[in-house]
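From the pipeline queue, job 12 of 40. The input is one protein chain; the requested action is below.

Action: predict structure.
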Amino acid sequence: MSGAQVIGRVEARGISRRRWAMVVLLVGAALIVAGAIVAAGRNGLAATDTMRSWTAGVELVVGLVLAAALGASTFNRDADAGWVGLQVATGTPRVTVALGRIAGRLTVLVAGFAMWIAVAAIASAVIGQGGDQDLVVHGCAMLGNMVLVLLAAALCSVALGPVASAIVAAFAFVSCLSLANLMAAADAEVIGTSWTGFITALYLLFPRAITSPMLSDMQARGVADVAGAQLEINGNVVLVPASSGAAIVWTLLWCLALAAAAALAFRRRALS
């Protein structure tokens, strides 16, 4: 087993025992169950939309809190407290330590989303909506978005404190979401053509928020609620399409780049 894997397991085990992490995970699961109870009191498409929008909202809001908190504490606090210095003092290369700490936090994030997706599928089946494969796919899409948030926060945590790192990461996600919306508006030709080239260049260069087919449909019908308000520009409703395979791959490549940047930046980080 490599050094990064060992450190990752230790980090994941330690984080999973922290009270704040358990509270966030359990609150997310409880809110999904509450959404299922609300949906059970409705019929047909209204019940399906309620279950989906409620779950998607939880995965967005609570998922953002979890991802930002995990990433924002990757280096700063433990580096200042001396724990990271002890890990490096064992002879483990700094890059290995950094990648291990990131891997441990990613493990917790994936486990959290896996739990929420399973709870949503079970709750959906219990109220007669079936396992809802579309909701599972959306959960996986949101996990991809939150991986991006976690890694952005981890990179910031090399130089910034936890709160600042979390804020910057959340802002980065909002920017990626806005970029996807602007590109959809440009494709629909509802904004000035003079901006199309600039928006396209940004879209091709930076990561984009991943949009699932389920969320795209619900946004178009205006029933996504917190998960995604209907996009309206100049009085025109704009359809935000589901992310293509190329867009997903591009965002995942950005995730790898952020992880590598965090590990390399950590090499110059002063340790206590």
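Job complete. The chain is about 75% helix and 0% strand.
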